Amino acid sequence: MTSQTSSDVENPTHAPLLDDDYGYVPSLDASDQPSQPQETNRQPSKPVLLLISGLLAIGLLVALIVGNVRIETHDNDAPLPERRDPIEQGVSEKSFGLPPNVSSFSWTDDMLSWQMPAFHFTPGKNWMNDPNGPVFYKGWYHLFYQYSPAAPVWGLIVWGHAVSRDMVHWRHLPIAMETDKWYDVNGVWTGSTTILPNNELVVLYTGSTNESVQVQNLAYPANPSDPLLVNWVKDPANPVLVPPKWINIKDFRDPTTAWLTPEGRWRMVIGTKVNRTGIAILYDTDDFKSYDLLDTKLHQVDGTGMWECVDFFPVSKNESGGLDTGVIGPGIKHVLKASMDDDRCDYYAIGDYNPKTGTWVPDNPKIDVGIGLRYDYGIYYASKTFYDQNKERRILWSWIKETDSESSDIKKGWASLMAVPRTVALDPLTGSNLLQWPIEELENIRSNLNEFNEVKLEPGSLVPLNVGPTSQLDIMVEFELDKKLTDSLLPLKAGSVPYNCAGHGGAGVRDALGPFGVLVLANKNLTEHTPAYFYIVKGKKGELDTFFCIDQSRSSIAKDVDKSIYGSTVPVLEGEKLSMRILVDHSIVEGYAQGGRSCITSRVYPTEAINDDAQIFLFNNATSITVTASLKTWQMGVSSTNGSGWVWIGPSLILVVVFFFVVWTWQNQRNNRS
Ligand code: DQQ
């Protein structure tokens, strides 16, 4: 298994052209061709000639395979398209702002190029935000995304497009939908795909019109027999939906995947707000062209502001697999998720859906949408699920933004990426939260397992782990605590401030039962490090509350990056060990606690703890307990084929054989002549 380095990513080699099977072949331009041996007066000897031709042939083979790894489709040097004014503001532009007067760090090219992830999806250049219309179609996973092809800042948004066999190795395709109609000239915004019973696809997306009105538009593949779905047609009937009178023309966006109602009509959700109330409204349609707005709202929550990228899907109480969007019946709960424009976080709640009335009620109104549970307690926004009929699971995609300065984004030439795709299902043990877990396909890019068993961590200890390079890691760790000790500790005093990750000073603040965990992306003298940790507090009634946190406050010596501390409580059931899984992929640290009951995604921008200078440690900063840790780590790479790359091995081998044959014949002829 080869791992993909950031320089592979920074220097993509080929642009795709058409191929017989799927519409595309990789092309080699002149600069990619191996150079020919120069004619000189001295004849090379036969073994030398064979060695050179062998190397050339291998080079050709490698070039063909590697050429499929990251294929860029956009020319960064092309003149910027004229921006139409006014560009719609306030929808997805960079929301991370640094306090005034923060000094800029002198970022070097090496530091910036290290930040590019290896196994998280990114278009490689320019700006990306929300995932759009994910679908599995004719053997390929399709991911569309909000893309600003002109610059690494939000602007005139189109639908970028990539395909994959496994959602790990990607093949970049041309832009699927451009801003070429009056009804989307200010942006082809977020939308979803629906698979019709005859396996045809339809896409509904929000267009920002020439007057910046948010409307819904219909599109479908130009050639449904093309598994890569390269070309898309927009329906002449567009826009198929305009904002109803009682909705502000700029608060009507992001249609969901539609599902069939028991009456046989298609139903979908759109997010909106009225004053400060976030609302999910429902439309029914027979043909995706004319729609009936339901009188009832699916759901609304006062004080939550605009609901973007609403998602609505069933989960099974008993089965671990996923369910198609329209499934209803006993043993099924429904998840309603909305992305809160106010705080840029994705909130969900679990509840019951009544298809007759078109309403949904949360199980626990105290943790309703926008005020309770989050998919992720770090940087995770505008997510969208789809039902993967290929493996009967529900997959969650989400946008991870940058939390550095815009000038750094411009210098590095790209901004944002997708979190790794996660399976999402109801937690069968609690019934009150979801479980999110990286898709199993990611395990195929693990290598170099290191295992550490029962490492005793005394209070105040720090244990370096020798696991090789640490910029691309999958870490799974379990902690055991001495139960007698936790029992003997006194509960929190009445009136003391309840713990939360952000408000209590991070991993450096010591208490009886925490923090303990893993330090990643740490340099030797620990001037830079990112701790992922548990922190246990004993509640007033003696109950233990466990928090899962990631502390970015010492992740970088640079001042012009986010230093927040993220986290939340995580349910831990009787008899369970504490467990966390941490994915490190250069500037992303993605954490999952207790099998995915609580997740945190963070962006870190170290200046020294990069490349070979980054290490990992176990630590225990608790003052009263010894913790026993057992862990496994793997290097994470992206193998040099992207699912479709193997297609080229056959032809490449034939080329190699032909090459050798020609050289051999030519050499023989020369020998015969002399
Ligand atoms: N991003 C899109 C909108 C959506 C927002 C525009 C969420 O459709 O509401 O890029 O990030």
TrEMBL record:
Residues 1-10, 30-44 have a biased composition (Polar residues). It comes from the Eukaryota. Residues 442-635 form the Glycosyl hydrolase family 32 C-terminal domain. The keyword S-adenosyl-L-methionine does not apply. Residues 120-438 form the Glycosyl hydrolase family 32 N-terminal domain. Its EC number is 3.2.1.26. Keywords: Glycosidase, Hydrolase, Membrane, Transmembrane, Transmembrane helix, Zymogen. This is Beta-fructofuranosidase. It is an enzyme of class 3 (hydrolase). GO terms for biological process: carbohydrate metabolic process. PROSITE patterns: GLYCOSYL_HYDROL_F32 (PS00609). Residues 1-44 are annotated as: Disordered. One of its GO terms (molecular function) is beta-fructofuranosidase activity. Gene3D superfamilies: Exo-inulinase, domain 1, Glycosyl hydrolase domain, family 43. The chain crosses the membrane at residues 48-67, 645-666. Belongs to the glycosyl hydrolase 32 family.
